[in-house]
Amino acid sequence: MTAVDERGMTKFFEEFEPPEGVKVELLRGEIVMMAAPDLVHNRIVEEVQDQIPRRRWERLQTTDVDIINEASEPVPDLVVIQRGVAPESGRLLPSQLITMVVEVVSKTSVDRDYGVKRSIYAAGEIPAYLIIDPIVAHCVLLTEPIGEGDEADYRAQRITKFGASLPLESLGIELDTTEFGTYQGVRPHRYP
Fold this sequence. Notes:
Uma2 family endonuclease, Uma2, Restrct_endonuc-II-like, Nuclease_put_TT1808, two-stranded antiparallel sheet, 192 residues, hydrolase, tt1808, chain A, alpha+beta, 19% helix, 12 strands
C-alpha cells in the first residue's frame, strides 16, 4: 500500500464521486461523509438565509470552499458573500471572497463544527463563522481570525441563546433566532 500525503488526498478528492444523498468534505486531508441533514437543521438554514438581504448578499448553500495552504475543502451549510464578487462558475469558492460561513450543528458534527472547522475557517481568514447549535439552543459567532494552519483561531466569540437577537455586524443585520428549532432527545455537549 502506498502512503498518500495531503496533496495526493486533495487530488483524489477532486475525482471522488460520493453516493447520492451524501455530503462529502475534505478536512485537513481527511474525507468526511455525512448523511442528509435533519429537518430542524434545514429549517434553521432556511430561516437564516431568509433574514440576509438578497440585494446585497449572495447566500449560497452546499458550496465548496477553497482554503489557501490547506488540504481542506469544507462545505458550510451557508456561505455569505457580497453580491457581485464571486466567479461566474466553478466548484470552489475562494475563502478570501467570503464574508461569513454558517454551520448548523448536527448530532454527529459537534466536534468538527466547534473544532477543526473553526481552525480551518480561521486559517482561511473568513471574517465571521457562525455556529448554530440546536443541541444546546445557542449560537456562537466567531470573528477576528488569526494564525495559520492548525494554530489558526478566532479572537472574538459571542454566545447568544435561541430566542434573543444576534447582531451580525459584518452583514449589517440583527439575526432573529426565535424560530430556530432544537433536536429532541440528544445528549448535550460541553462546547460553549
